[in-house]
Write a structure and sequence with these properties.
Helix 2 runs antiparallel to helix 3. The protein has 319 residues and is of the alpha+beta class. The protein is elongated, with a radius of gyration of 31 Å. Helices cover 24% and strands 19% of the residues.
């Protein structure tokens, strides 16, 4: 990767705000979701993200400006600082980028509180490990690459039926995901080895699933609720009407004399539970009258002219 300042197009003295603003602009332009037919854009997006990862970390940026680490965060001169505590080997927190390309998140650090373990370095150089009085310590595993976090928006009906989802990773590759049973808003899924590469292997991708509101379905625990308009004739005479569900439309029987507020149950048409079973869909009838100035309302008035109903529907309210 080139100089991170040049990659983001900012001066070396740029403020944190300027660096973040430059990254947001480039991330929008280069995000893989907007450049599916341009692999170079995905490569450039990765470079921009690494540059922002370095410059948005105050400690890493200061060490880079002092020449202690290179653009990838590796020590520029492993022997330049002696073998004390300040040779530039301390691990900073890992950062990742969200699926929308803007916000990072902290991961675990790599360096221990007692300073860096140089035994692996000298073992590689001289073909052996020092004895008990040498550099000491057990063999430390090489660090993995950073985890990356993605946001996946899932429709309510897809969450109910566990419909397969597709996500585009930072390298431009797409992956088909199977939603977990019992999915809830902010459920996380870990994709092993799909994060940033590192000396000890690639990190993971963390997919945060966000269930989106629906135009007419409402989630109620394991159930889905729906308000269903029916005509006055359908409510009075009864009818078979088509009803939308998460799995597609089905026919529902409305009994004669049904009133607004009556709730009918469609078994197994709700959310998928953790055990794989389904909740129900609860359908609440809403008697829908024609518009006041419509021909249908005029016809209804003509048919009801002279009709009187000798009962008080508000008697239970004491009025």
């Amino acid at each position: 990767m080139a100089d991170p300042y040049a990659t983001l197009g900012v001066a070396r003295g740029a403020s944190e705000k300027d660096i973040k603003s430059a990254y947001r602009k480039l991330a929008k332009e280069l995000h893989p979701d907007r450049n599916k037919d341009n692999p170079k854009a995905a490569e450039r997006f990765s470079e921009v993200t690494r540059a922002y990862d370095l410059l948005s970390d105050k400690d890493k940026r200061a060490r880079f400006d002092r020449g202690e680490i290179d653009v990838d965060g590796n020590p520029a001169n492993p022997f330049g600082g002696g073998f004390g505590g300040g040779g530039g080997f301390g691990g900073a927190g890992q950062r990742g980028f969200r699926h929308d390309g803007f916000e990072g998140f902290q991961g675990g650090g790599q360096g221990g509180a007692g300073g860096p373990d140089l035994s692996d370095l000298f073992e590689g150089l001289f073909g052996g490990r020092s004895g008990g009085g040498g550099f000491g310590g057990g063999r430390r595993a090489a660090p993995k690459g950073a985890n990356l976090q993605y946001r996946l928006q899932v429709s309510l009906t897809d969450a109910a039926t566990l419909a397969p989802q597709r996500i585009t990773l930072g390298d431009g590759k797409t992956i088909d995901l199977k939603l977990p049973a019992g999915i809830e808003d902010r459920t996380q899924m870990r994709l092993a080895g799909k994060g940033e590469p590192g000396p000890g292997g690639s990190g993971d991708a963390i997919v945060v699933m966000e269930i989106q509101p629906h135009a007419f379905f409402r989630q109620d625990g394991d159930n889905l609720r729906l308000d269903l308009p029916v005509s006055l004739a359908e409510a009075v005479n009864g009818a078979k009407v088509k009803v939308p569900t998460a799995d597609g439309a089905v026919m529902l029987t409305v009994a004669p004399g049904s009133t607004s507020g009556k709730t009918l149950r469609l078994k197994g048409k709700g959310m998928t539970r953790k055990d794989g079973s389904r909740g129900d869909q609860l359908v609440t009838l809403q008697v829908d009258l024609p518009a006041p100035d419509s021909e249908a309302m005029a016809e209804l008035r003509r048919r009801l002219e002279g009709f009187e109903e000798h009962r008080n529907p508000r008697a239970r309210l004491g009025v």
